[in-house]
Amino acid sequence: MNETASPERRQPGLRERKKTKTRFAIQQEALRLFQEQGYHATTVEQIAEAAEVSPSTVFRYFPTKDALVLTDDYDPIMVERFRAQPPELGVVAAFRAALRETFEGMPPEQVRAATKRHALVTAVPELRASFADFAVASIRLVADLVAERTGRPADEPEVVAVCGAILGVMLAGYLLGGDLEEQLALMETQLAHLESGFTL
Fold it and tell me: pTM above the 0.90 mark?
């Protein structure tokens, strides 16, 4: 997710901005080395050296090597955008709007990073396996958000079904789309289909 903040949104402090910059620099160097040398041939020590930090600093931001590829800043912003949607919007419509607002105006360097990350996830079997764990965590997150918005329990079968459908759409867009623009277009189309009743 990008940082296209609304005027009333709290601006991050200097320390927070420095941490964000350091995290992004580490991930950028990791993605560059993975692309140049291959995922398995690249060590955390090499990434740390390229980013001009210590290996312990790398692990402070990314607890595992897989996390260097799978971690992004999108979820917190998506959550914020989802919660800010008008209450009269249904769950799927609110999710569509949050997705659109999150990725509008994303800086080019973030687009490139997202494209590199996608290429690695689809090419490296270990990353695809780890991606499944991230998907499970996402289902729980979406279930909590839907429960919060509707006032229904997160484990209610209907809530779980809606969350599964939304995450299925997102995963299909991510895995079947090409670059980030194509993924988002596919997700938008599929969410619109889901919102309309998902009839064939």
Answer: no
